Amino acid sequence: MSHNTFGHLFRVTTFGESHGPAIGCVVDGCPPGIELTEADIQPWLDKRRPGQSKFVTQRQEADAVKILSGVFQDERMAAQLTTGTPIGLLIENTDQRSKDYGDIRDKFRPGHADYTYDAKYGVRDYRGGGRQSARETATRVAAGAIARKVLEKLYGKVTIRGALVQMGTQKIVRANWSWDAVNANPFFCPDAKAAVEWETYLEGIRKNGSSVGAIIEVVAEGIPAGLGAPVYAKMDNELASALMSINAVKGVEIGDGFATAAMTGEENADEMRMGADGKPEFLANHAGGILGGISTGQPIVARFAVKPTSSILSPRKTIDRAGAEADIITKGRHDPCVGIRAVPVGEAMMACVLADQALRHRGQVG
User: pLDDT by residue (tens digit) across 188-207?
Assistant: First the structure.
């Protein structure tokens, strides 16, 4: 299969299937001399790990990462450092239940990539979706942890945080936004009051054997002005591409996004003044920290929409590989809202794009 690599200077290649022995990735282009151990990666994987609440898939995976290459330490060194060579990462699969998928071996789940995958390759690993599975995103989160280390090395404190701002029909109240609330509930929700209401809402969806979509917002702070390029390497177009590559994502917007279509020029303008520190100060951030494809130094803001999980217990009409009409019910362990665990994945993809842009910026302008 082609197209398993993304990035230019900071390049990530992922491999493995949902029910294979392991998944993993190779991160190429990480500069040498950066402190890196498995303990730097594991906390981010733990955020995404399944089975942590009744509102996500109950598949029990430790998601313990192993660094296979690209680092070195001996008795002369105070810490393990990257060597500048490819960093190999491996995550073993330990809790597969392939038998759960026997009933859909020859059937196509409506709304899922089963049909298109089979149409393209003619052979399909139906166990958990194989390479189509959201299980693959664990490797992106691992790569994102390394990307964060690169950004910290170049710019000092860089913060990349994500939050679930809508679940199905339920939205947060932005006046209640608190980053402290994000890690205090099972939904990564920044509105503590909404999070309580979402528990009842999603429990009803789960008990009905159905699913709902979500919208996730990711914000990066500490990125200087100047990253990106004005034509084919626009930061927003590469960020949109990276976020769209996440499983089940059907829409991306930067800053105010589609809402800008209803604004006037006066409303949309991010006016500027000179700050007390001698640097430009923006009075708004409708552009989401990117103008003309280049970062402004403001927080970079992106949102992406995740569709409902296709694997549901409600009977749906479909066909099988022979073309016969059939009904399908997907058994097994599935997320009633896969958007919940997409939050750390969105953070990781933002980190990878920013690390790649930072290295390209350094390579071009010093």
Answer: 999 999 999 999 999 999 88
Q: How far apart are CA 131 and CA 43, in angstroms?
A: 24
Strands 159-167 and 214-221, by their bridges, are antiparallel
Confidence class of residue 209 from pLDDT cuts 50, 70 and 90? confident
Q: Rounded to whole angstroms, how far apart are CA atoms 51 and 57? A: 6
Instruction: Please determine, for residue 67, whether its predicted confidence score (pLDDT) is greater than 60.
Output: yes
289 Cβ neighbours under 8 A, 6+ residues apart: 220, 223, 255, 295, 296, 297, 298, 299, 300, 301
pLDDT band at 164 (very low <50, low <70, confident <90, very high): very high
For residues 279-307, average pLDDT: 97
Confidence of residue 18 (pLDDT cuts 50, 70, 90): confident
Task: Report which of 352, 362, 100, 28 is spatially closest to residue 220, judged by C-alpha positions.
Answer: 352
